[in-house]
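[#protein-structures] MJ: dropping FkbM family methyltransferase here for a structure pass
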Amino acid sequence: MSELNIHGVLVPIAPNEVSPEVWNALETGAYEANEARRVARAIRPGDRVLELGAGLGVITSIIASVEDVRVWSFEADPQTTRLAKRVIDLNCDGNVVLSNGILAAGPSKTVSFYRRADFWMSSGLAEQGPYAEVIEITSGDIDAFIEQHSINAVVMDVEGAELDLLQDAMLPGIERVFLELHDHLYGLAGVQAITAAMAQKELIYDPRGSSGPCVLYSIDDGERKFDAEVAHAI
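AK: finished. structure tokens for FkbM family methyltransferase:
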């Protein structure tokens, strides 16, 4: 088994445990590179973070490295969850709770999840392309979970499910949401709908933590001092 260093996170995964495309992204350092550069700017010491779409646990581990942070992370794919647990156990200091499951807006319901060879293409959308397996999963209520665990920040990469989720969920007490947009699945109209829904929750597009499809929405907490490093990165 190889132990790769991906954005400062040790990833003990063998080539035969992921698809060739995913393995190539891991070997070259392209795996979740944009998210890795940005996510730490969306998280602050002491945050209580809900992560939806853990993938291999690389971004989870980066979040968990921020001082005094607690993370509750969900991954729908059971096989990917097992790999993520291995990564999280190696890199994190007991401040991550990883679950195999889905959170959605509203009462529990049965959700069809379409597993694909490239796990980052697995999603709740059958029309996204050929799939290897369909898994039926009972969702949990995201708003109830947020309130129960006093979550104040959300990170998500859920392959298009963000469109309905962010329009329908209330997100009580959330100060920041960092996500990857998937405009190839719902077009610019979907991006506009997400931004409008976030504005209704007083979460504003924040260019200081955004880059391309990786977008940060924040509450307006007042003017910040100029940060040359952030300005250059943007």
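MJ: nice. The longest strand covers residues 70-75.
AK: one more thing. The mean pLDDT is 94.
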